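Hi, can you check this record?
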Amino acid sequence: MAKNENHYLTVNITSEENIRGAIKELQAKLAEQPTVEPLKVGDYAKTLTKSKHGSIGAGEIIIITRTDYYGEIVGELLLDSEYEGIYLASQLDKATEEEVKFAKIGRKPNEFKKGDIVRVADNYKLGSARKAGDIDEIKKGPDSGGWMHVGDEVDGIGAWIPQEYIELITPVEARFDVDGE
């Protein structure tokens, strides 16, 4: 049994015994596949393609509002319920909590801004003044490489850290002590 360039499994069948063996092998491969919970009304989903009908593009976060007569999924754009789209289940992925959190504030996942309050989620192995669990403000960045200056320097040690080591606590737009624009 082999996969061809179209990712289909191909089987060379020369006898009834080969057929039985191929069926058992395919059943075993199918059993290994993770089961995915079907999306339901109220779930958040990430669009993988442009909607079949409607004007929602790929990569957007929607909330599922209903299924139509044909069993297709109908969803509204999270930040603007005037935009609706119709999708097949295969055109959607369940949105992660992080994707929904960022979408609700009008940002793409892991889009940080100067003034955001963040938590350092993991120690950066090459050294930084910030350690796992520290909560502070983004003072500069992100730069083109995704690095941010979080908090102030400590004993001459820089506080630059890559964005994959931080998580958003409070976006600058939700802070009352600074101008979030």
The chain has three domains: 2-32, 44-101, 117-174.
